[in-house]
Amino acid sequence: MDTVQAVSISDRGITEGGFVSSQYNNLATVRDAFLKRAREASRITIPTLIPESGATYNTEYHTPYQSIGARGVNNLASKMLMALLPPNSPFFRLTIDDFDLANLIGEDQRGAVEEGLARIERAALAEIESEAMRVPIFEALKHLIVGGNALLHLPTKGGMMRVFHLNSYVTRRDPSGNILKIIVKENLNGKTLPEELQKYINVPDSETPAKNYELYTCIHRTPKRYEIYQEIQGNRIEESYGQYPLDQLPWIPLRFNRIDNEDYGRGFVEEYIGDLKSVEALSQAVVEGSAAAAKVLFLVKPNGTTKLRTLADSPNGAIVQGDANDVSTLQLQKSTDFRVANEMLQYLTNRLQIAFLMNSSVERQAERVTAEEIRYKAQELEMALGGVYSVLSQELQVPLVKQLLNRLTKQGKMPKFPKNSVKPEIVTGIEALGRGQDLNKLNTFLQYLQPLGQDVIAREMNVGDYIDRLGASLGIDTGGLIKSPEQKAMEQQQAEQQRQQMMQQEMMKNVVEGSAPAVTKEMVAGMGNMDPEQLQESMQQMQQQMPQ
Fold first, then answer.
1. Residue 168: pLDDT above 90?
2. 369 band by pLDDT with thresholds 50, 70 and 90
3. Contact status, residue 542 vs residue 520, Cβ threshold 8 Å
4. Tell me: the pLDDT tens digits for 20-44?
5. Which helix (H) or strand (E) holds 374?
6. What is the C-alpha R_g of the chain?
7. Bigger pLDDT: 168 or 111?
8. Which of 56, 72, 143, 503 has the fewest CB atoms inside 10 Å of its own CB, making it the most exposed?
9. Phi first, then psi: what are they for 485, rounded to 5°?
10. How far is the C-alpha of 512 from the C-alpha of 8, rounded, in Å?
């Protein structure tokens, strides 16, 4: 376990007594109500995500009769991952206060400072890619959607990010949502127990070590910091004591929906649990009913002339003796009931597809569906996640940025800045949705200007500023893509010089044509490659040669 600063037992300031295992069990009574709902939601979506207590590798999980739940969870988690952590693009931007910038190096060095901050952003992005953080974050997002809670641990000294499920940790928050305590429970194999922990195991020499041991990690808040320690078999591990600043805790408890005065969040699936249960029940009824209806049975009258053995032994196409009225087929006669069930099943499925932002839900079933209609409806669905992005930006993205910057500082890749002068600004999630709204407003504004005509628009509109705003709303860096004012001025100057040179050449040709001597015509023929000074000297020579 990593710590920011080790502290001794005498000055650690830990006032809470009792075994951590007892504290865990006490807090688990509050958590169990949320865990029960999470397992119920997992049962009809992805049963292996939050299994029942005591589940092992050979547990036979419930198999849902429908797949819309699993597809919806994976689709929504993928969309959220791409929105919160877009590939090859930083999800945050570092900003520095103007007053701090003036005190540090002066306003004229803003460009150099922003370039340095951009390098830090790229280094943080490289850290995410090298540690493959998107994999555990994607797992955490699925837990948030189904169960509403997940716990991330990002070691400050480097290493893979870990995800703890709701059944392996407990939390306690104040009414404002700040973390007061986190206790994590891990099961360690006795054969692979680290040597530094073996001395805390109370095993008599005559007994063999237990197969598994429960390791508890306790993080609790004091007025100025977070303190952390571990416990195994009722013994507190001396080497595990440590402390973190309040804004640099590497344990990140996540919630999907934030509810006042509750220690845990509520999942997305819980909001649509009624539709999912209905789809599950209807799917089961349709599947089992279809299987029963597909069974074919032939009935023969017991006192008829047609023999049962004759029908059973006759091959296909054979000619046999009998009466067709003696034979009938047993049918279920439930087609009307199945049609009603299928219509309701399709209706509920469409509602769930909209809820889980599945693209198939935005395409209208018609002969002609425009791409603009699909694009508009898809964007409308994305806007529905604005509240979720707001919560995750504060509970996931901001703590993750601080931990990444802390890592870069320990690795020597982060330059020294005054405290609280550099602040991260999230540019994905809800901010990206805001830029999308800016794009719609820009396009609408330009459409309203069309009746004025292209000449009026070109005369009144600042095209350069419009292009910059358009690129910003699309999230495109226009640096190097759009010509700068200096570059356009230089090109205009070069074009003006070429125009003047061509005019002078044309004028000289008209002057000397038919009156200048042959040597002058030869000079005019070679003027195409002359610079303006040489051209002026040639003009003076020709004027001297012209007759008075």
1. yes
2. low
3. yes
4. 999 999 999 999 999 999 999 999 9
5. helix 371-383
6. 37
7. 168
8. 56
9. -60, -35
10. 101
Residue-averaged pLDDT of the chain: 79
Side chain identity, residue 220: H
**Alpha-carbon distance 471 to 445, whole Å?**
16
* pTM assigned to the model: 0.73
pLDDT band at 290 (very low <50, low <70, confident <90, very high): confident
SS (H, E, C) 197-253: HHCCCCCCCCCCCCCEEEEEEEEEECCCEEEEEEEECCEEEEEEEEEEECCCCCEEE
Q: Strands, DSSP E only, in 346-439?
A: 422-426
CA–CA–CA angle 258, 398, 177 (5° rounding)? 30
What is the pLDDT, as a whole number, of residue 6?
Answer: 39
Which residues partner with 288 through β-bridges?
none
Bridge partners, 187 (sequence order):
214
Q: DSSP labels for 424-483?
A: EEE-STHHHHHHHHHHHHHHHHHHHHGGG-HHHHHHHS-HHHHHHHHHHHHT---TTTSP
Nearest residue to 170 via CA among 179, 161, 157, 159: 179
Question: How large is the greatest C-alpha to C-alpha distance in the chain, in angstroms?
Answer: 140
> How far is C-alpha 195 from the chain's CA centre?
39
**Mind spelling out the 3-state secondary structure of 290-343?**
HHHHCCCEEEECCCCCCCHHHHHHCCCCCCCCCCHHHEEEECCCCHHHHHHHHH
Side chain identity at residue 344, one-letter code:
M
Query: What's the pLDDT band for 12 if we cut at 50, 70, 90?
Result: very low
Q: Do 283 and 291 contact (CB within 8 A), yes or no?
A: no
pLDDT of residue 501: 83
Q: Residue 103 is encoded by which pair of tokens?
A: 């005190």
The dihedral region occupied by 391, where left means phi > 0, alpha psi between -120 and 50, and beta the remainder, is alpha
* Tokens standing for residue 34: 């949320």
Select from 156, 137, 151 the least CA-distant residue to 217.
151
Report the SS3 class of residue 523: helix
The gap between the terminal CA atoms of the chain, to the nearest Å, is 101
Q: CA angle 378-383-384, nearest 5°?
A: 100
Point out the least confidently predicted range of 168-182, 398-412, 448-462, 475-489: 475-489
pLDDT of residue 15: 41
Q: Is 345 helix (H, G, I), strand (E, B) or coil?
A: helix
538 — pLDDT class (breaks 50, 70, 90): low
Q: Can you tell me whether residue 171 is helix, strand or coil? A: strand
Closest to 395 (Cα-Cα) out of 430, 365, 350: 430
SS3 359: helix
Residues 388-445: tens digit of each pLDDT: 777 888 888 888 988 888 888 887 777 766 666 778 877 765 555 455 566 777 788 8
Name the phi and psi angles at 519, rounded to 5: -65, -35
Share of the chain above pLDDT 70, in %: 75
Choose among 171, 131, 176, 174: nearest CA to 154.
131
